[in-house]
Amino acid sequence: MNEPHLFCCEACRAEWRLRRASRRLPDPAGFEPEAPVEERFVERVLTAVREERRRRVTRFTRLAAAAALLFFFFAGAGREVAATSVASVEQAYAQLDVSSDLDGLLPD
User: Fold this and answer.
1) What is the reported pLDDT for 13?
2) CA–CA distance, 27 with 40 (Å, rounded to integer)
3) Interatomic CA distance for residues 55 and 49, integer angstroms
4) How far is CA 76 from the centre of its chain?
5) For a 10 Å CB count at each end of the chain, is N or C smaller?
6) d(Cα 69, Cα 38) in Å, to the nearest integer?
């Protein structure tokens, strides 16, 4: 490295120190011997992971079905309300147009 630059640049000096320190570290493979893994432990972990994945898929499917049902319910209810409101407007207009039997009882 360029030594005069290391005296001026703090970031490069920190990187250079980290590189030198990492060279002095021992090999990580020699820290701990690899312990044998029991086959039963691996089976339990895999079973738990599969069960959790199955639960997650089931939960997602149920939520998707509920969302679809709500969507179709509100879409149908909206169409029904629109049809009902058109019919009620027409009925209200028809009632205004037809004279009532009570009109004959009113004095002129």
Assistant:
1) 84
2) 31
3) 10
4) 26
5) C
6) 47
> pTM of the predicted model, to two decimals?
0.40
Tokens of 71: 């969507």
Q: Among all chains, which residue has been given the structure tokens 């320190």? A: 21
Please report, for residues 84, 93, 95, the alpha-carbon distance to residue 89 in angstroms, rounded to integers and kept in the order given: 8, 6, 10
Alpha-carbon distance of 27 to 35, in angstroms, equals 18
Alpha helices (runs of H) in 1-108, residue ranges in sequence order: 3-8, 10-24, 39-97
Do 6 and 16 meet the contact criterion of CB atoms below 8 Å apart? yes
What is the phi-psi region of residue 100: left when phi exceeds 0, alpha when psi lies from -120 to 50, beta otherwise?
beta
- Tens-digit pLDDT profile for residues 62-106: 999 999 988 888 887 666 655 555 556 666 666 665 566 666 666
The C-alpha atoms of residue 101 and residue 90 are separated, in whole angstroms, by 21
Q: pLDDT digit string (tens) for 10-60?
A: 888 888 888 888 888 777 766 777 788 899 999 999 999 999 999 999 999
